[in-house]
Amino acid sequence: MSVDTEAAALVRGSSSSTQGVVWRHRHLLDVDVVSWPEIDLIMRTTDEMKGILARPIRKVPALNGRRVTTLFYEASTRTRVSFETAARNLSADVVSVATATSSVTKGESLVDTIRTLEALGAEILGMRHSVSGAPYLAAEVFGGHVLNGGDGWHAHPTQALLDLYTMRQHLPSGDLRGRKVVIVGDILHSRVARSNIWSLTAAGADLWLCGPATLLRGMDCWATAWDGGAIPGHGRFNVTSDVQEALRDADVVMALRIQRERMQGGLLPSLREYAARFGLNAERVSLAKPEAIVMHPGPMNEGVEIAPDVAVSGRAVITEQVANGVAVRMALLYLLAGAHEAAHAHEAGNPGEASR
Ligand code: CP
Question: What is residue 15's predicted lDDT score, i.e. its pLDDT?
Fold first, then answer.
C-alpha cells in the first residue's frame, strides 16, 4: 500500500463529526488551544492507530523519511519511549537526545540545543523540560513542530489526551458528559492535572480535584473563575479536601503521584499521613460506582498515593493508559506532520494539496 493510500485509509474511518475538521496546529504545547472538534479528531485518529497496533506488523509508512527527535531534560519512561515507539510505528527516523550525555552538560542553552538539532535535521521535536514554558520558547526558535512531553508544573497535553482516550473506552458510548471524574493527589505540582482540567471540562465531565489544602493552592480561584463561564461550552470543576465527598459515586478515579522532587518543606506532615488520609485504598475506592475505573498517569509511588492491591485490581486501567499513549502519540505525530491533510487532499483527488 502506498503512503498516500495508507494515509487515506486512515482518514476514511473518521466519523461524520470529524469529517471536514482540519488540523491547523503547528505545535502541540497544551490542550488549552485545541477545540473540541479537534480533540475529537485526535480521538478518531487514535482509533485508527489502535487498528494499526492490532495488526501482526504494527508499522505503516505514513511518516516515511520524516525525522523525529526526542529531547528530554527530565527523567521519563512512558512518554519518551512511547513518542519514539509511535514515531517508529509510522516509519519516521528517530533520534533520541539524552541531555545527561549531550552538550547541555557543558552549558549549552536550550535555544542553542534546539538550533543545533534543527541543523542536524530534526523536523518534529518531542520534548520535556523541568521549566514551565520551555517548549513555548523552543517553538519560537524551531522551524519544525514541537510536541510538549511535559513542562514543569504547567502542562502535559499528550498525557491528558491519552487519559481522555482511555476514559472514553470505558464509559458507555464514550461520553464523559456529566460523568464524575476525580483526580486525587498532588494537584499543586501536577502538569497532568492542569492539562486534564482543559480536556475533561471540554468533554463535559463533572471534574473534582481533591487533596490536602496545601496541594490544592490556587485551584479554588481557578475553579471559581471557571464557574463564571470563563470558557463557553466547558464544564465546571470542583475543588475539595474531603476525599469521601470527592470519591462518592465517581465514574473515574485518578490518583496522582506525590512529587517529592518538586516539593519544598512544610506541604505535607509526612508521606505516611498522606497515605492514611488521601491514599487510594480499597475502602476508599468502594465509595465510587461499582463499575468505576482507577487510573494513574505514572510513575506510581505504591503505598503512598495508591495501595498496591488497588493498582493491580480489576478496576485499574493503568497499563491501558500506557499502551494508549503509543496510539495517541502516533495520532498526534500524524496530524502535526500534515499527513491528515495530505490524506484528505488525496481523497479529494488533489494530491498537490498534500505538498503545501
Ligand atoms: N506519565 C508520565 O509522564 O510518565 P513518564 O514520566 O514515565 O514519562
Answer: 40
